[in-house]
Amino acid sequence: MGNAGRVGEFVEAFGNLKAEVGKIIVGYDEVVTDVLVGLFAGGHILLEGVPGLGKTLLIKTLAAGLDLSFSRIQFTPDLMPADIIGTNIILEDADGRRHFQFQKGPIFGHILLADEVNRATPKTQSALLEGMQEGSVTVSGISHPLPSPFFVLATQNPIEMEGTYPLPEAQLDRFLFKLRVTYPALEELNEIIDRTTRSRETEVRRVMRGPEVLRFRELVREVPLAAHVRELASLIVMATHPQWEQAPEATRRFVRYGSSPRGAQALVLGGKVRALAQGRYNVSVEDLKAVARAALRHRIILNFEGEAEGVDVDGLIGDVLDQAEAASRRGKEVFLQ
Q1: Could you tell me if 260 and 295 are in contact, meaning their C-beta atoms sit under 8 angstroms apart?
Q2: DSSP secondary-structure letter at 275?
């Protein structure tokens, strides 16, 4: 099958999966799209929003549309690493001999919902993060591979921070995207009431299996990236660093630390998936701009002045995009200087 046929196949599969999620989830078109982009890019997603907005339902619905195993972990302060990854238990055979056997924890699922991830202690959070980064967990010196594909969707409440353990910046950086789930509009709220207060439940069909997801992930990696688009991705990330000589004024004034190279990887991979979903086998500047806020908002650390003035990181990223595009138009490879 040629590239055109493979792209067409991806467009159809992406649309079918999004349609199945849309049977249950009202609105949030951009959030749903970004979650699917994260799935096919091979990254993990952090969803932030107040309780009751459908974050958990969105993830469960996505899992229902995929023929993959699903696990949910409700994070609490007393949760221990062994409660997530599993532990060795002692078994006795028919001859009375005892031996250890590894009992797998809930992390051994293709799709993992880490609900309220910031409520667990750092020790427990790090156990989850090892699995996210390495694709395996280590127990008693033995590495146990996780199923493939492995996709973590974590949620957190940005309002009630009492008794929580906010994820450190290095752990936040492990997430491909951070998505903000906001309140629905009036028309969407009316539709939510209609769908959730009737007796008949909507059934979600399983439209994709694991091997297909892995095949589409390979296709995403094969999408070519033009030199000027790659340069723009680098310029965008550099413009988040206050030390960079061409950083925008907002970055110099309000930012303490900018994005890591993972931010550039997230921009490019997200742009590739978005291009394929629209039937294109090349990444455009608009693709990078479309995923920039989701890819960078959790990778920019404000300084004291930025925190005190309540600077909105999404607005700051808008300034970064403008500055990066201006530098790109000037045709200067300033990121190599």
Answers
A1: no
A2: H
